[in-house]
């Protein structure tokens, strides 16, 4: 083998790593053969080598390398580890080739180098007692919920005061950014919101007709669709869809800006990230969500009406005239009034989580998930509060 | 290093390489050959496609035409198994380390070992420890996550991971960018010493004139969509190409030359 084969060798023709141990005159003699590289089965003989090292502990050891064909760092490390384990003597610490015989000059540098790096290593962070860890996680969870709540409320205060500043100085409003986000999270969502509501309206109508026809009261399907779609489903499903679609996008966008220090750069330039990033998004959402909810309500009604027409032969004329007669308009407003509140909190949570991203891509993913989960929770929680409020008000 | 046959063998041979994105042509019939055991530095202005060239060689980017041979194999027509085998023989240090952020440094280094080999945890962690200390990191960095490391340490950890499988060619994408001069000089030394002990071939994309002077055997200058000059740095310096002239005779180019020649006089330099 010429010098040019030093590293590449001819990998196909290399023989597997192997060793034979013989004991003579109170000393162990280890004859090494084959290529001692990870490629050629070093990992397979590692266990045997460790067993040998344990049994030969403290004895004199000679390792003969005349049969060694090739060596990589792992092989050199394994040889040195065995040598050091057996002859644990202080005086050889500075003689890296002590105990090796017939060392080929092309293997010597690696063997010498490996000697300096023989250290055990911890791989994972020590996690400790599992029961204590459970308690610790519980405690940390409770603490983080408390801290998050306070921080989100602080964030709400900052956004509200930022909006108040803009009301006093309308020139500070970033109109272009606001309109951009109205398009991104409002206009671009109309198709999916509309389609979803249309299908939900149709499903509600189907279920209504099936059950009500048993009482011969198919016509009441109109009331059922009217109330559910206008009052609850239109706005609630829009909010859920937008939380998944735009809330997560806000977190991802702000989070990656935070990771790339864009937010710090803004602050350093004297640009308030609240004013430049958070308020345009929040205003855009607050403006567009009622519009989306309106579209959702309309398409939900159309979906219901078409199903009523085809499945219960309620004509469109009858459907909509009855709708006008029996459904109070306030159902519609009760639904719509919730939209800006949902929008406000989805945007706030999305932006807040984005601003909290720190360190790594991992955290960005975690925060995005948290943003969606929290905004869905808040939307449904608010919906329940509104339901109680309207019940008390009697609307 | 002195063996002539060794220096003549080409581990990477690129011929008539054409790459581009959309309407933009990045390399137009580019030729480049890398010899076994050398440290080659690839320089060029921003946007001349240095990183694209690196990524094309390691088959992350598909060229439009041309041929790339690595260890004599046509790298553009490999099947999945051959590609995997080739990948094991190449190590890459990306610009900011590109460490997996969900793993500790040790786990990062063990990742390629576990992926390619059936290896016991004990052996894998010993190898990881060895690579960590070989890259000049303290051993307690093993259990740290990438986000807890400084930029220089991330690069070292990235280098340790690139070396995990004992590759024959190591690709370095701007290894000293973003490091302080002392850190950059140490990193240069590290690359040089690893290259000598492990017999590596190093393909290095860099802007750092000091490290070009210090550690490269040859440099290749990318300009006008081609390799417009290649050779030892002293020869390339004489080239009349306007970009090369501006590069080496600008204030930074001259300063780097002066400091390196002082080093050489002191008997520690190499360039």
Characterise this structure.
The complex is a heterodimer of chains A (395) and B (271). Chain A is α/β, with parallel strands linked by helices and 395 residues long. Chain A folds into two domains: 113 residues, Transcription Regulator spoIIAA; 227 residues, no CATH class. Chain A is 68% helix and 8% strand. Chain A has twelve helices and four strands. Chain A has a four-stranded mixed beta sheet, with helices on one face. In chain A, helix 4 crosses helix 9 and helix 5 packs parallel to helix 9. Chain A starts with 17 loop residues before the first strand and ends with a helix. Chain B is an alpha/beta fold. Chain B has two domains: 149 residues, 3-Layer(aba) Sandwich (Rossmann fold); 62 residues, no CATH class. In chain B, 42% of the residues lie in helices and 24% in strands. Chain B is built from eleven helices and ten strands. In chain B, strands 6-7-8-3-9-10 form a six-stranded mixed beta sheet. In chain B, strands 2-1-4-5 form a four-stranded antiparallel beta sheet. In chain B, strand 1 and strand 2 form a beta hairpin. In chain B, 45% of the residues are buried. The chains are: A alpha/beta (395), B alpha/beta (271). At the A-B interface, helix 1, helix 2, helix 3 and helix 12 of A face helix 4, helix 5 and helix 7 of B.
**Molecular shape of chain B:** globular
Classified in CATH, the superfamily of the largest domain in chain B is P-loop containing nucleotide triphosphate hydrolases
How many discrete structural domains of chain B? 2
User: What is the class of the largest domain in chain B in the CATH system?
Assistant: Alpha Beta
Q: Which structural category do the helix and sheet elements of chain B fall into?
A: alpha/beta
Q: So what's the overall shape of chain A?
A: elongated
The most extensive contact between chains is: A-B, 41 and 46 residues
Mean pLDDT of chain B: 83
Tell how many strands the DSSP assignment of chain A holds.
4
Oligomer: heterodimer
The main sheet of chain A orders its strands as 1-2-3-4
What is the succession of H and E elements of chain A? EEHEHEHHHHHHHHHH
Computed CA radius of gyration of chain B, to the nearest angstrom: 19 Å
